[in-house]
Amino acid sequence: MAARIERDSLGQKEVPADAYYGLQSVRAMENFPISGLKMHPRMVEAMSMIKKAAALANAELGLLKPEISKAIGAAADEVLAGKLRDHFVVDVYQMGAGTSFHMNVNEVLANRAIELLGGKKGDHTVVHPNDHVNMAQSTNDVIPTAMRIAGRLLLGELLPVLQDLQTTLTEKAKEFDGILKSARTHLQDAVPIRLGQEFAAYAATIGKCHERIAAAARSLEELGIGGSAAGTGLNTHPQYQFKLVEHLRAWTNIKWRNAPDMREAMQSQLPIAEASSALRLLALELIRICNDLRLLASGPTTGFAEIVLPAVQPGSSIMPGKVNPSMAEMLNMVCFQVIGNDLTVSMAVQAGQLELNVMMPVMAYNLHHSIEILKNALRVFIDRCVVGIVADADRCRRYAESSMALATALNTYVGYARAAEVVKRALREKKTIIDVVREEKLLTEEQIAQILDPIKLTEPGLPGR
Predict the structure, then answer these.
(1) Among residues of the chain, what percentage have pLDDT more than 90?
(2) Is 316 a catalytic residue?
(3) What is the pLDDT of residues 20-65, one digit of tens each?
């Protein structure tokens, strides 16, 4: 394979002649052949936006030649358009702070800028990855800024999907509002409820999760770029950080803001923890909702079978005709992964020391991975499961009318102890609550119609009054 020779402070090595990455990327590939996993594409794009904005800001401040700034910006635009992606080669598990990945980005943009200016890859006298692409920057402020930008961009993709889920559940709540069923507590029969009320509660939960994630997204909009090596802004023009963020705002239509304390923005990764935690809370609630749907759809002949989930594929390699709640099972597994990712992020966030948290690559990867899989999983869960849920209204009503928990409505008329005796007799003799009440003449027929009407028991108030 044709190669070129590049040199750094540790010596020299061969680099593939056609590679846009350089020597430090080669060293990283040799040092960290760990997982084969790479940073999320949005992280590459966030880095490219930062590099372009930095080049423009430094040129506007008279610190970088306009032609070099323009070439770096053009190279960044190519990456943002989807080109050169195979040249971002550094493993997720790498040296602390993400210096390897950072230099991989610097080298790719430098070498492409060199070509745009008529030079050959590796000729750093034209465009230097450190002196030009990395001007006024450090890994220590670029990586935390990039992972916030990438996280915020990804949350911007997740939030509309969450809104769609809430809307779809709300529509199902309206569709099912007239369907009477038995509630269940402790997995035992409870007082009547409407199926639509259950789905409305699911929608309300998703709405609350949406609010928390939206708040976390706003936290990610605070950027510590310009802090350079230790948050003090060494080697940066006083106006650099503000000009850079202005460019980011213009390109993304997101209200990025400069961190009031760049040292804090470097030391603490609280916004990353907040975003990951919000995703974990969403995952916990989604697991609960999925498990409810799986229970409600259990059967079809030996379970609850109150709802039917869409059949998306055969459910067994040995049992003909079996259909499983496949989409809910998939979403459960995604949520388990998100919870595990959050633990990784939590451990990484608390591992900061003094002026820097060096565990940023792993927290960035796990946060961005969580957002990506939740977004994709929820999209298909909505389209291939929730939209197509149907209810067995007759079965639901039969359970509600046969529930022993109807006796709860008797409390204010005959007392808790007498109502309990009614329940025990009904169970013993395999009769309904209404049958026993009628036989023991505890209520008149008019009172039975008023007090033990299951539909009326699904709203606040004193039964029969």
Answers:
(1) 96
(2) yes
(3) 999 999 999 999 999 999 999 999 999 999 999 999 999 999 999 9
| More confident position, 430 or 1 | 430
What CATH number has the domain spanning 403-458? 1.10.40.30
Run of H or E including 307: strand 307-308
C-alpha span between 98 and 421 (Å, rounded): 69
- Return residue ranges of the chain for CATH 1.20.200.10: 141-224+262-393
> Is residue 16 a contact partner of residue 25, using CB atoms and an 8 Å limit?
no
Six token digits for residue 2: 């044709």
**Per-residue pLDDT tens over the stretch 215-263:** 999 999 999 999 999 999 999 999 999 999 999 999 999 999 999 999 9
Structure tokens at 256: 């990025």
Determine which one of 25, 298, 316, 403 is catalytic.
316
CA distances from 405 to 185, 245, 391 (A): 11, 61, 22
CATH class given for the domain over 3-135: mainly alpha
The angle subtended at Cα 396 by Cα 391 and Cα 402, nearest 5°, is 175
Q: Average pLDDT over the chain, rounded to whole?
A: 96
SS3 172: helix
CATH of 141-224+262-393, one of 1.20.190.50, 1.20.200.10, 1.10.443.10, 2.130.10.10: 1.20.200.10
The model's pLDDT over 355-373, given as tens digits with 9 standing for 90+, comes to 999 999 999 999 999 999 9
> What size, in residues, is the chain?
465
Query: How many other CB atoms sit within 10 Å of the CB of residue 399?
Result: 20
Query: What does the DSSP assignment read for 59-116?
Result: HHTTSS-HHHHHHHHHHHHHHHTT-SGGG----SS-SGGGHHHHHHHHHHHHHHHHHH
